[in-house]
Design brief:
The protein contains 6 helices and 4 strands; from the N terminus they run H-H-H-H-H-E-E-H-E-E. By secondary structure, the protein is of the alpha+beta class. It folds into 3 domains: about 40 residues; about 40 residues, no CATH class; about 100 residues. Strands 1-2-3-4 form a 4-stranded mixed sheet, with helices on one face. Helix 3 runs parallel beside helix 4. The protein is elongated and about 80 Å long.
C-alpha cells in the first residue's frame, strides 16, 4: 500500500549528519530542495488518490467499470456505481459456488437496500438450476432490476441455470415452511424478476 509522505523537509533535515546541523546555508539549500520534493509528492499523491476506486468520480469511475466489465446504467450515483464496481470485482473472482453466489448477491443488494436486510435465500432447482429470493422494504429501482439478470448469470457456474429471482416486501405471501411468509389471505405478492 502506498502512503503519502507529508514531511519531506523535516525528514531530510533530520537525516543530515550532525556536523552539518549548524551549517545554516546547507540547511537552507536542503530545505529548498526538500520543499520541491514535497511539492512533487503532493502533486503525485493528488493524481493517484483522485484515481483510486474509493475516490474516483465521473469519467474515472466509468473507466474502472469498463476495466472490470461493469458498465454504468442510468440512475446510479457515483457512490452506488463505486459499490457496484467493488461487487463486480468480487464477482469476477468467483467460480459460481453456492456460498459465493449468496455472498455476492448480498453485497450487490446491500447498497440499494432501504431498511430490511438483504438476506438472500438460495434454493436448488433440479437438475441444474437454482433460484434466489430476498426481502426488502421497497422494490428495487428500475436500474437495479435491469442489471440483476445479467449479473446473476455472470456469477453462476458453467452449466447451471438461474430459473427464479424473487424480490419480496415484508409480509409477502408464501408456502408452509417459509418462516417469513404469510398465508394467502394475509400476504402480498412478490416481484418475480426472472422466471
Amino acid at each position: 500500500m502506498i502512503s503519502h509522505i507529508t514531511d519531506h523537509v523535516a525528514r531530510t533535515l533530520a537525516n543530515l549528519p550532525s556536523r552539518f546541523s549548524i551549517a545554516a546555508r546547507l540547511r537552507a539549500l536542503v530545505t529548498i530542495l526538500a520543499t520541491e520534493c514535497q511539492t512533487l509528492e503532493d502533486t503525485l499523491w493528488d493524481l493517484i488518490s483522485d484515481r483510486m476506486l474509493s475516490t474516483a468520480a465521473g469519467v474515472q469511475l466509468d473507466a474502472y467499470g469498463e476495466l472490470v466489465g461493469q458498465v454504468r446504467l442510468g440512475g446510479f450515483t457515483d457512490d452506488e456505481y463505486r459499490r457496484l464496481i467493488s461487487v463486480r470485482i468480487r464477482a469476477n473472482k468467483t467460480s459460481g459456488q453456492v456460498e459465493d453466489v449468496i455472498q455476492i448477491m448480498s453485497m450487490l443488494l446491500a447498497p440499494f437496500a432501504v431498511g430490511v436486510g438483504s438476506d438472500v435465500h438460495y434454493w436448488p432447482l433440479p437438475p441444474a438450476a437454482y433460484g434466489l429470493e430476498w426481502v426488502r422494504d421497497t422494490y428495487s429501482s428500475a436500474a437495479v432490476v435491469a442489471m440483476l439478470p445479467a449479473f446473476v448469470v455472470a456469477i453462476t457456474g458453467a452449466g447451471i441455470g438461474v430459473d427464479e429471482l424473487v424480490e419480496a416486501l415484508p409480509g409477502y405471501w408464501g408456502f408452509e415452511g417459509d418462516d417469513d411468509a404469510l398465508s394467502l389471505g394475509d400476504g402480498d405478492f412478490t416481484a418475480v424478476l426472472i422466471t
